[in-house]
Amino acid sequence: MFRVAGPSEYLAITGVFIDDVELAKKKLIIPFQKCVRFDISPVNYEFNLNAMSIEKLPFVLPAVFTIGPRINDNESLMLYAKLVARHEKNSRHVRDLVLGVIEGETRTVAASMTMEQIFKGTKQFKEQVFDQVQLELNLFGLFIYNSNIKQLVDVPGHEYFSYLGQKTQMEVANQAKVDVAEAKMKGVIGAKEREGLTIQNAAKVDAESKIMATKRQGEGNKEDIRVKTEVQMFKNQKDAEVEQSNAEWSKKKAMWSQSAKMAEVEAQKAVSIREAALQMEVEKQNALTMTEKLRAQDLSKANIKYDIQVQETNAQLYAKQKAAEAVLFEVQKKAEAQKASADADMYARQRAAEAELFAKKKEAEGMIELAKAQGFYVGNLLKELDGNYNALRDYLMIDRGAFKDIAKLNADAVRGLQPKINIWTGATGNGVGEGGSGGAMKEIAGVYSMLPPLLQTVNDQTGMLPPPWLATLPSDANKN
């Protein structure tokens, strides 16, 4: 039979050819297989949970949870199909299961918080409850799609939240009264500040007007004095400087007059004191004027001399700077040349070192190959001689001329002495003049007759014995 699930449904199939449980949207059900259809749409669960804070104050927590199976996780769907799907999602069993988990975790979280923390930190309290409940529901393949904790409610006979709300209302009302009083105070103070600023600004404008009039009058006087001073400068430079000092004195006098008028506007009572002070300043300026007249004669010459000395000093400084720049440029060029030469030398040494390293490397590789070849050669010889090391040693000494070298060294050692020399000869009969097969056999017999004395001499000088297959040395009795 072919079964098809709805948009918000799943099929849970068990039986033959299925190890555990198979979830599908559509499936052909064969004999000895069982199919159960279950709904995966979420359900709203509304509760009024009784909890108690850490101070042992009871309260009621109205909450609404939207819970259903986790549809995007096959493992969670499998758990839901095994543990919960056989019951109706609105059945008392499922409701008691969800309520038990939510009540247990909510009471656990509430018991670790004070009533003040729960009331003011509702968002944090909700998040903690949500996280703890979700951990437990994961064991049943359930997922919290939404959770909403309503306003906390007092348990009959315990009006904590009511009193806390009244306290908050009174605090808000008192704060509002304080804000109104502060606003009124700022308004009164602001009005007084504006009145004071108006009076100050009016007085300031009046004073500035009088100062401006006095300043204009002083500027006119200053212009007259300036014209007179320029005329005097054409006549004589010294007299011009004196007139300039007089002009400065006139300007200062005008400024004092302005200051006196400003002081009269600001405070009428300080006029007499200000006049006395101005009079004292006038006397001081008179003394300064007399002093300036005496110094004016030498001032111009000193200025000209100073300008000439400054120009000469600047010229000398410029010449020294150019010379220093030339020396610096020459030193820089020499340093660059030395650096280039050092780089070239270093590169040449580096290449020579690399070439020497390559040659050493190739020489080592050649020695390694030679050693391998010699080892192979010696190994083959030893194998052909059936592992006889003495025979191998004798063969190598004969092949490489070791006996010849030994004889040469012995000859060099006894050169100039009178050693005992044994001479062997295999010549018998007529020697070379004889021919035929008899002559050849005589030569071979001569070689064999020479071999024993030769081997005896080698044994006396080196202590080495000939191989058994070659010959044996005569005994001591034969020697005697």
Automatic annotation (TrEMBL):
Assigned GO CC terms = caveola
Domain of life here? Eukaryota
- Record keyword Ribosomal protein present: no
Q: What is its main location?
A: membrane
Instruction: Please report the record's description of how this protein sits within the membrane.
Output: Lipid-anchor
InterPro entries given in the database record: Band_7, Band_7/SPFH_dom_sf, Flotillin_fam
Q: Indicate where this protein resides in the cell.
A: Cell membrane; Membrane, Caveola
Q: Which UniProt keywords apply?
A: Cell membrane, Membrane
The record places domain Band at 6-184
UniProt xrefs under SUPFAM superfamilies: Band 7/SPFH domain
Entry similarity comment: Belongs to the band 7/mec-2 family. Flotillin subfamily.
Name-wise, this protein is Flotillin-like
